[in-house]
Amino acid sequence: MTHAHITAWFLALVLFFIALGLHKSGKAKGFRVVQMILRVFYILIVATGVWMLTSISTISLLYILKSAVGLWVIAMLELILIRTAKQQRTSTLWIQFVVAFLLVLYLGFKLPLGFHFL
């Protein structure tokens, strides 16, 4: 299930940057379509994350923290796209996204279900 979770995350990040590129090039309809597909991937990410979380025999506080930070990353992705579509400033959201993303990666690789190269 870890591979499905990582694949969903990777594809969501790719779709996120595709959506930003479509918006920048002025293709509003393509932007909306990719944004809707991206929302399906958010559901897949949460579903695979919950599935992995329920498969653990003892859930420590770090797993709960990683889950909360993962939801924070998803929220930042969505808010960046919404504010970009409304042509509002997104610099604070980008900073939050980078901090949350690095934190969730660190926790993901540190915890026993993650890959062990750190």
UniProtKB/TrEMBL annotation:
Keywords: Cell membrane, Membrane, Transmembrane, Transmembrane helix. Signal peptide: none annotated. Belongs to the UPF0344 family. The chain crosses the membrane at residues 6-24, 36-54, 60-81, 93-109. It is found in: Cell membrane. The keyword Kinase does not apply. One of its GO terms (cellular component) is plasma membrane. InterPro entries: UPF0344. It is a multi-pass membrane protein. This is UPF0344 protein BMMGA3_04300. Its main location: membrane. It comes from Bacillus methanolicus (strain MGA3 / ATCC 53907). It comes from the Bacteria.
